[in-house]
Each structure stands twice: as structure tokens, then as C-alpha cells.
Amino acid sequence: MSTFYQKHFLKLLDFTPAEITALLKLATRLKTDKKNSIEIQHLAGKNIALIFEKDSTRTRCSFEVAAFDQGARVTYLGPSGSQIGHKESIKDTARVLGRMYDGIQYRGHGQEVG
Questions:
Q1: Quick one: 92 exposed, middle or buried, by C-beta within 10 A (0-12, 13-18, 19+)?
Q2: Which of 19, 27, 91, 95 registers the highest number of CB atoms within 10 A of its CB?
Q3: Tell me, which fold does domain 41-114 have in CATH?
């Protein structure tokens, strides 16, 4: 799993076909391991922030279950529970949260990435 250490998944084009294949194989293995009750918690002791610019039940649930299954602790920051982009700049918030969390999942309105 270390192949993707500090790799940001912003868009599909950020990955080579070989990396996409590796991700799909990893996902299959993790799902099979969970089904067979032999799952290893690769994220034990890690903290993940789930930031939602808009509510999304399926996305939130899937990330929370996956993180929990892998041993991570999650913090949910929903659209009404944070001041990101309003009273706090996105850049400053990202810098602070980046020091506090091992991973950040972001669900926003658009697909525009720099």
C-alpha cells in the first residue's frame, strides 16, 4: 500500500493505467479480506477528516465505514459545522488540518482542480 503514500487523488488523469489497475486490485483484496474476516487495519491510529461542502449520505457512510474498518478515527465537518471558506480561508484551514490529520477527504460542489 505504500505505493500511494502521500498521493493525492484529485482526478483520474493523475494516475497511470498501471496505478489504476493497482488501486482496483487493492480494493478487491481489501473487500475479500473483510468478507473472509481476515482484514488488517492498515490505518490503525490514524486520523482522517471528512470535509463536506455539501451533504452526501452515501459518500459520508462509505468513507466512515471504510475508515473504521481500516482502524482510523474520523472527524466529520459538514457544511453547517465549519467556517471553511467563510470566516476561515481555505488555504489556512488546509494548512492547519494538514498538520492535525493523516488524511483529508473532501466532497465539494465542483470538479475543478488546479
A1: exposed
A2: 19
A3: Rossmann fold (3.40.50)
CA distance 79 to 109: 11
The sign one gets for the Cα dihedral 57, 17, 21, 98 is negative
What are the tens digits of pLDDT across the range 48-70?
A: 999 888 888 999 999 999 999 99
Is residue 102 scored above 90 in pLDDT? yes
pLDDT in the model for residue 85:
67
Start-to-end Cα distance in the chain? 26
How far apart are alpha carbons 8 and 18 in whole angstroms? 16
**pLDDT value of position 112:** 59
39 contacts 95 by C-beta, under 8 angstroms? no
* Three-class SS state of 1: coil
Closest CA to 60 of 45, 49, 48, 50: 50
- Alpha carbon 5 to its chain centroid, in Å, reads 13
